């Protein structure tokens, strides 16, 4: 699991889970670790639908189209489709970061592991650190160009988690409603 900022830097990496592990399980592990992922005050992370709605983690609407156009053919029809379309557009940042990482370090793209598992974990972490250093140092030939929540304690009761889930669902719906209203106002003018 990894968190990426809009400069394509890895801000958090949790290596060592099998690729078949459920997203929500890996996220829970990252949240419960002593030095695990933390959501900055008044911020949230965009996540895949597999993570679900959790405080500080904004997922797309489940079962709603996202690969659309804002205008023209195959255009968005409602606020949820618009939200998912824009969520998907921002999520491409993660794909670009991983693409640059794999192009830079071919060892990460090799399906045949040559090293013991603990060494593989260390290699992933080292590659992410070097990737960040290269980006911070300046230009990067491996990066291709593309054509308000508080910090939460995630160790809560089941009822608390249900309430937190409802708050994130309502928060996401509020964002979607506002985007749709803004879009409708632009179409009127």
UniProtKB/TrEMBL annotation:
It is found in: Nucleus. Its cofactor is a divalent metal cation. GO terms for cellular component: nucleus. Its main location: nucleus. GO terms for molecular function: hydrolase activity; metal ion binding; nuclease activity. Residues 2-132 form the DDE Tnp4 domain. It comes from the Eukaryota. The keyword ATP-binding does not apply. Keywords: Hydrolase, Metal-binding, Nuclease, Nucleus. The keyword Nucleus applies. Transmembrane segments: none annotated. Belongs to the HARBI1 family. This is DDE Tnp4 domain-containing protein.
């Amino acid at each position: 699991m990894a968190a990426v900022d809009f400069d394509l830097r890895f801000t958090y990496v949790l290596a060592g889970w099998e690729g078949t592990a459920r997203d929500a399980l890996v996220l829970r592990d990252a949240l419960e670790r002593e030095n695990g992922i933390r959501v900055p005050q008044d911020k949230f992370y965009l996540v895949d639908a597999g993570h679900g709605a959790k405080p500080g983690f904004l997922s797309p609407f489940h079962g709603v189209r996202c690969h659309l156009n804002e205008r023209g053919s195959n255009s968005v029809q409602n606020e949820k489709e618009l939200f998912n379309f824009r969520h998907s557009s921002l999520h491409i940042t993660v794909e670009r970061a991983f693409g640059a990482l794999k192009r830079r370090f071919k060892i990460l793209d090799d399906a045949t592991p040559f090293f013991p598992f603990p060494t593989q974990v260390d290699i992933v972490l080292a590659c992410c650190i070097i990737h960040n250093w290269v980006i911070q140092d300046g230009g990067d030939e491996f990066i291709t160009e593309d054509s308000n929540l508080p910090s939460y304690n995630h160790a809560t009761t089941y009822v608390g988690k249900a309430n937190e889930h409802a708050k994130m669902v309502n928060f996401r719906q509020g964002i979607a409603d506002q985007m749709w209203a803004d879009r409708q106002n632009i179409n009127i003018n």
